Amino acid sequence: MNDRDLYPESWEAISARIRFGRAGGRCEQCGIPHGTFGYRDQQGHFHSLVQVFAAMLQGINPFEGDLAGVEPGKPTQIFLQCAHKDGNKSNCTDENLISVCPKCHFDMDRPGQPPARSYGRRYRLHQYDLFHSPSDEAR
Ligand SMILES: [Zn+2]
Fold first, then answer.
1. Ligand 1 center–CA 117 separation, angstroms
2. How far is the CA of 9 from the centre of ligand 1 (A)?
3. What is the pLDDT of residue 57?
4. Could you write out the DSSP letters of every residue in 4-68?
5. What is the pTM of this model?
6. pLDDT, position 2
7. What is the pLDDT of residue 109?
8. Could you list the mean pLDDT of each consecutive 10-residue stretch along the chain, which spans 139 residues?
9. Nearest one of 43, 13, 45 to 32, comparing CA atoms
10. Distance between CA atoms of 50 and 53, rounded to whole angstroms?
11. Cα 80 from Cα 102, distance rounded (Å)
């Protein structure tokens, strides 16, 4: 039995209903909207492209501040996930499901633990460049 066998057949519909119906297309932990482009700093804070451009218009170079070391040409796009609060993938009651961004999902799986270097490696799997459509991942 692999992980996928634990999910109900209607998982895609359930997941979409939680993420875009109940949660209104936002992370239910941090509130970030699905599809937002931006950058995650070393502390895990997200800076949307709108915030970055706003800073630049004020003459601030965000890539010399919180975002030092981040590649400006490679923003991340937030792609919401539907997570199981109790970690049991076959428990798909509404109360057990939550719409989360990849960062909040990662933190949920490691409660009470400080940010780990492995977060960066795993998180990069969810990064896109400007020419990669999020719909590519859904296929
Ligand atoms: Zn979040």
1. 18
2. 26
3. 97
4. GGGS-TTHHHHHHIIIIIISTTB-TTT-PBTT-EEEE-TTS-EEEHHHHHHHHHTT--GGGTTTT
5. 0.76
6. 74
7. 80
8. 83 97 98 96 93 96 93 94 93 96 90 53 46 46
9. 45
10. 5
11. 7
| CB-based contact 77:37 (threshold 8 Å) | yes
pLDDT at residue 16 in the model: 97
Cα of 1 from ligand 1 centre, angstroms: 30
> Position of tokens 């996928």?
4
Task: Give CA angle at 9 (77, 126), nearest 5°.
Answer: 15
Question: What is d(CA 9, CA 19) in angstroms, rounded to the nearest whole number?
Answer: 17
Distance 77 CA to ligand 1 centre (A): 12
Amino acid at position 28, single letter: E
From the CA atom positions of the chain, what is the Rg in Å?
Answer: 16
| Cα distance between residue 5 and residue 67, in whole Å | 40
pLDDT at position 1 is: 64
